[in-house]
């Protein structure tokens, strides 16, 4: 028997209207800043957490903010001068808090070190911390310290998550999502729920993929046997349903006469199908399914048996229906009717799902399901233990390919081209080796629980013979990657990986602008604004006698509309000019010696990539905070807002106090309010 495709699709999509109510956006509170880790006593990173009220600098406008503005700001930001259109000459606190957008700018400028500008007196760290804390509160109006965890839009699985989930759920290794339309990205990540739309063609692809997956499973005897006869331990939510589980209504209604072998056999098949579908749907929907949901799936089996088409035909249709259900294709977090509380804590199954798709880009495993069913994931030490277990698991390599590949933009290597005249050695093998180096390096930091600062300063990497030749490293042979020391080579951390240096260059030359912008966005977390309309790049026209790239950019930067941003961008990019457009070391650009000196916005200077890296590492909190922002954006699947700043700061502080260990950073992240809670009432927050 073959039921119409529309019927299968209809059963799978029948609940779309129910889950559609979960479409929403998010935000989170802000109330803390990074303080001096040396002033804090050691603590247990698994169970201790930052208390916002205890850590918050008690900044007051009269005693902290007004003196800061008078000492460092008003000379340029008075009513008469209003540099950059910002006025900071406030008469009292009432006038100050009336302009929250101004304090958003102030917080960002002081936090990044852009303000006060070079040549002006610099505030002490405690002064800056107090101003930032007060500015953050003024920017959001959050004076009470009570957080807003925000709401995450109902989000479908992206292509990577779909393939990984099929692998772990069904047990087949096909990758059907390769035929899906490409996922859009938001804030640099394809986990952003607001851009993961569903087109008519994707719905058709979902049904075709489900049929292909079921066909592949049915052709594998071991896989099919497990799906149709799951072991007892697959009944994950047994603690919720009681023991033994309820029997199917269809089974309870059977009249089985003694000696009627056909009736007995049919009842046994229905019984087996019910519990097999229940076990499969439990895992596919990532929560305990209801008996009504299983009953709808059982219609396929019952109809198939009644028509004489057999058990397998009906079971295939039922499994196909599960794989096109919104409860499988979307990560659903349905809220109860809004009550007196504005937010709620996620259920154990919702938390397990967020955790597994964050660290594995796939569904929860048996251990997570059982802890969720038993209500134990809310225990701090249990959750920390699961995080560390999951990071050690090979499935955490998804973080390297999916998170790091997008954060560091090395996914773009697949489309990078180079002029074969200028770079004849840039081929497919080198491109693959570049990408694999960065993924292996990031995966090493994750699975070995190395300090996250290794991403910036680690003097080691992973190469094969092809990449070793590119780096002029000796003693490496064969295609297998192995760890090597970079001491004395001028390289360290991802900043000097050929993958990063290549995607931030052009087809024929390096781009200090792209590289400087990349560092500001992905290392310092202070991205520059977009170029003003009508401003052209370096086209070669109007450059006069400029010969070197630095001279060309100096001429470009002399334009009034370009000066401000390029003063921040270009010096950092020039610090990496010892690496050519495919990341090979060079001392000359053509006939001219490379000039890799620079001046940062906060007045610090450097010469060459090693000194640039050392200058960036002098303020590790900036890099760690940027990494936290990127990880939280990726994990939540939504844009961060001003109200998330407090959570970002607390996670950053936790990582600093925990010696920058990657696992401690992740533990703090998954214990944060934005990750563990969601706002029930609708509406937007700052």
UniProtKB/TrEMBL annotation:
Alphabetized PROSITE patterns for the sequence: CYTC (PS51007)
Keyword Phosphoprotein: no
Domain Cytochrome c: 52-139
Entry keyword set: Heme, Iron, Metal-binding
Coiled coil: none
Xref: InterPro entries: Cyt_c-like_dom (IPR009056), Cyt_c-like_dom_sf (IPR036909), DUF1585 (IPR011478), DUF1587 (IPR013036), DUF1588 (IPR013039), DUF1592 (IPR013042), DUF1595 (IPR013043)
GO MF term (any one): metal ion binding
Superkingdom of source: Bacteria
The protein's name: Cytochrome c domain-containing protein
Organism expressing this protein natively: Fimbriiglobus ruber
């Amino acid at each position: 028997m073959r039921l119409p495709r529309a019927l299968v699709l209809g059963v799978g999509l029948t609940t779309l209207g129910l889950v559609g109510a979960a479409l929403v956006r998010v935000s989170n509170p802000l109330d803390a800043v990074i303080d001096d880790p040396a002033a804090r006593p050691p603590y247990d990173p698994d169970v201790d957490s930052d208390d916002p009220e205890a850590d918050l600098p008690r900044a007051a406008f009269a005693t902290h903010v007004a003196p800061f503005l008078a000492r460092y700001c008003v000379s340029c930001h008075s009513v008469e001068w209003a540099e950059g259109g910002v006025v900071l000459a406030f008469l009292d606190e009432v006038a100050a808090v009336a302009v929250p957008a101004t304090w958003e700018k102030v917080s960002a400028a002081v936090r990044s070190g852009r303000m006060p500008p070079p040549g002006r007196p610099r505030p002490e760290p405690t002064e800056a911390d107090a101003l930032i804390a007060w500015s953050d509160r003024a920017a959001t109006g959050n004076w009470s310290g009570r957080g807003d965890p925000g709401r995450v839009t109902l989000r479908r699985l992206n292509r990577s998550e779909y393939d990984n989930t099929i692998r772990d759920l069904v047990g087949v290794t096909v990758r059907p999502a390769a035929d899906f339309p490409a996922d859009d990205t938001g804030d640099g990540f394809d986990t952003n729920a607001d851009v993961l739309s569903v087109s008519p063609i994707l719905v058709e692809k979902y049904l075709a993929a489900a049929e292909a997956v079921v066909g592949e499973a049915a052709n594998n005897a071991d896989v099919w046997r497990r799906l149709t006869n799951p072991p007892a331990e697959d009944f994950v939510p047994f603690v919720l349903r009681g023991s033994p589980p309820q029997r199917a209504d269809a089974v309870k209604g059977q009249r089985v006469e003694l000696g009627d072998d056909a009736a007995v056999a049919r009842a046994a098949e229905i019984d087996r199908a019910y519990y097999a579908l229940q076990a499969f749907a439990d895992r596919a929907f990532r929560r305990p399914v209801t008996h009504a949901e299983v009953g709808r799936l059982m219609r396929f089996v019952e109809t198939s048996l009644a028509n004489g088409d057999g058990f397998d035909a009906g079971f295939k249709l039922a499994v196909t229906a599960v794989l096109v259900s919104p409860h499988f294709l979307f990560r659903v977090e349905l809220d109860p009717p809004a009550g007196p509380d504005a937010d709620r804590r996620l259920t154990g199954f919702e938390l397990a799902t967020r955790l597994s798709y964050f660290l594995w880009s796939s569904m929860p495993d048996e251990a997570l399901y059982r802890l969720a069913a038993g209500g134990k994931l809310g225990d701090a030490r249990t959750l920390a233990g699961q995080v560390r277990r999951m990071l050690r698991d090979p499935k955490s390599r998804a973080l390297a390919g999916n998170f790091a590949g997008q954060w560091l933009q090395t996914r773009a290597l697949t489309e990078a081209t180079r002029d074969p005249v200028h770079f004849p050695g840039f081929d497919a093998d080198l491109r693959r080796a570049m990408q694999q180096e960065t993924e292996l390096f990031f995966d090493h930091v994750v699975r070995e629980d190395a300090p996250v600062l290794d991403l910036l300063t680690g003097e080691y990497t992973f190469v094969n013979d092809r990449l070793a030749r590119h780096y002029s490293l000796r003693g490496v042979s064969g295609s297998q990657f192995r760890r090597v020391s970079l001491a004395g080579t001028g390289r360290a951390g991802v900043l000097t990986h050929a993958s990063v240096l290549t995607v931030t260059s052009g087809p024929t030359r390096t781009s200090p602008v792209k590289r400087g912008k990349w560092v500001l966005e992905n290392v310092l977390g202070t991205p520059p604004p977009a170029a003003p309309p009508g401003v052209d790049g370096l086209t070669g026209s109007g450059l006069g006698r400029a010969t070197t790239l630095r001279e060309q950019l100096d001429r470009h930067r002399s334009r009034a509309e370009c000066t401000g941003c390029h003063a921040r961008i270009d010096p950092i990019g020039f610090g990496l000019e010892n690496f050519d457009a495919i990341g090979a070391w060079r001392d000359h650009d053509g006939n001219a010696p490379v000039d890799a000196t620079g001046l940062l916005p906060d007045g610090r200077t450097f010469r060459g990539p090693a000194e640039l890296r050392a200058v960036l590492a002098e303020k590790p909190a900036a890099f760690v905070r940027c990494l936290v922002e990127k990880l939280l954006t990726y994990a939540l699947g939504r844009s961060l807002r001003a109200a998330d700043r407090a959570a970002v700061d607390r996670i950053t502080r936790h990582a600093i106090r925990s010696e920058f260990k990657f696992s401690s950073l992740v533990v703090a992240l998954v214990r944060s309010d934005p990750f563990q809670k969601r706002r029930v009432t609708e509406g937007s927050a700052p």
